[in-house]
Design brief:
With about 425 residues, this protein is mostly beta strands. The chain has four helices and 44 strands. The chain has one domain: Single-stranded right-handed beta-helix, Pectin lyase-like (Pectate Lyase C-like), CATH 2.160.20.10. It starts with a helix and ends in an 18-residue tail after the last strand.
């Protein structure tokens, strides 16, 4: 009887034990989640006095919130998925003094936002070193002795919404780095170059303002398949865009203006597309193409250049169509360049004694269906005389070399049009 009673009591106790077990498990689980939450969020200087100390104690996935103040330190981020967030980008300051980068990212999935990063005496304000899919967003980076932001052998990164000012050499440097997005940044007063792409492919550069560079605004070297769109490149001491040995790039709807030499200079490059750009008020030429082939220049407005709208030198098989060349010296000048197609462009208001176009040793080009405001067929537009003059070609004067002697020669646009083409461009309005 006692055994039977004990068995019944054990059976009755089972729900109580199970219920207690789940209650205890829930408490443990709740305590664990609270503990994990605390580990996922660190505040500087409350939890750790320095940013680097916080990073050193952070597990992957931790967010580090940095309160307002001045932090004089150089930081290395080598733990993945760290978020470094400043309280206020104007008053949360990481300031340098040593001979290293202020922030070096050598882990993936890092985010840095909300800081002023300044006075680096090393290479850069922020260096992304052999690391991928990081975000640098909404910072002020200034007075760095070398670069503002530098990417080296890194891909899939986003550099956006930053103000980069007064760097010793380069505003944004992309070196041996592919598939990055650089957008909505303002890069000003770089003492050498505003932005550099070197040995870097498939990057998307858009909606940036690059101004006041002491050398070139954007310098591209050995970089292919990049897209530069809706950028403003202005007030460089030399050229706005410099493109060296680069292929298959697209320059779309950019505003390139007020540069002290050429707007765009293309050298030893092929298969690039320049479309829908506004290139204006550059001191020398709007576009120069040198020793380059198979490039397409279309639907651009190029105006107010003191020298030429466009020059081709030792360059063959390029296509120039549906552009407006206005209020320049010479519209197009060709030097030792053949087999180029120049068609369906507007030539307006040339101020050179050579007129809208001329050439030297370049007789094998195709000129077709362009609008020339000084063509005789435009001057006489009514009655029988108009029909007669419209059958006349437009003469393009030049010289060819026979042996060692220069001989005057003419090319012709044999079917010029009477009305100008309607060509409009759209770009970045944030000037």
């Amino acid at each position: 009887m006692k055994n039977k009673t004990a068995t019944i009591l054990k059976i009755l106790m089972i729900p109580l034990v199970i219920g207690s077990f789940y209650t205890i498990a829930a408490i443990v689980k709740e305590d664990q989640s609270t503990s994990i939450g605390e580990e996922d969020f660190i505040t500087v200087p409350d939890d750790y006095i320095t940013i680097q100390d916080a990073i050193n104690h952070a597990n992957p996935g931790v967010s580090i919130y940095v309160k307002r103040g001045v932090y004089e330190e150089s930081i290395i981020i080598d733990t993945e998925r760290i978020t470094l967030q400043g309280e206020d980008k104007n008053n949360t300051i990481i300031r340098g003094g040593s001979g290293t980068d202020l922030i070096t990212i050598c882990a993936n999935f890092t985010t840095i936002s909300g800081f002023t990063i300044k006075n680096s005496n090393g290479w850069s304000g922020i260096t992304i070193l052999r690391s991928n899919k990081n975000i640098v967003d909404g910072n002020i980076i200034r007075n760095c002795s070398q670069s503002g932001v530098r990417l080296y052998e890194s891909s899939g990164n986003i550099i956006q919404n930053n103000i980069i000012d007064n760097t010793g050499k380069i505003g944004i440097e992309v070196d041996s780095s592919d598939n990055n997005i650089i957008k909505n940044n303002v890069v000003s007063n770089s003492r050498w170059l505003g932005m550099v792409l070197s040995n870097s492919d498939n990057n998307n550069i858009k909606n940036n303002i690059i101004q006041g560079s002491r050398n070139y605004g954007v310098d591209m070297f050995l970089s292919n398949n990049n897209i530069l769109s809706k950028n403003v490149v202005q007030k460089s001491m030399l050229n706005g865009l410099m493109i060296w040995e680069c292929n298959n790039n697209s320059l779309l709807h950019n505003m390139i203006q007020y540069n002290n030499e050429d707007g765009v200079w293309i050298y030893y490059s092929r298969d690039n597309l320049l479309q829908g750009n506004l290139i204006q008020d550059n001191t020398w030429n709007g576009i120069d193409i040198v020793s380059s082939s198979r490039n397409t220049v279309k639907e651009n407005i190029i105006r107010n250049s003191s020298d030429n709208s466009m020059g081709l030198y030792y360059s063959d098989n390029n296509t120039i169509s549906y552009n407006t060349f206005s209020n320049n010296g010479i519209g197009i000048y060709l030097y030792d360049s053949d087999r180029n197609e120049i068609s369906s462009n507007n030539f307006l208001e040339s101020h050179s004694k050579y007129g809208h176009a001329c050439f030297y040793h370049s007789r094998g080009n195709i000129w077709s269906k362009n609008y020339w405001d000084d063509w005789i067929g435009v001057k006489y537009r009514f009655g029988i005389k108009s029909l007669l003059f419209r059958k006349l070609p437009k003469r393009i004067p030049g010289e060819i070399v026979v042996g060692k002697i220069s001989v005057r020669w003419n090319n012709f646009d044999r079917n010029p049009v009477v009305e100008p083409y309607e060509i409009e461009v759209s770009g970045n309005d944030e000037v």
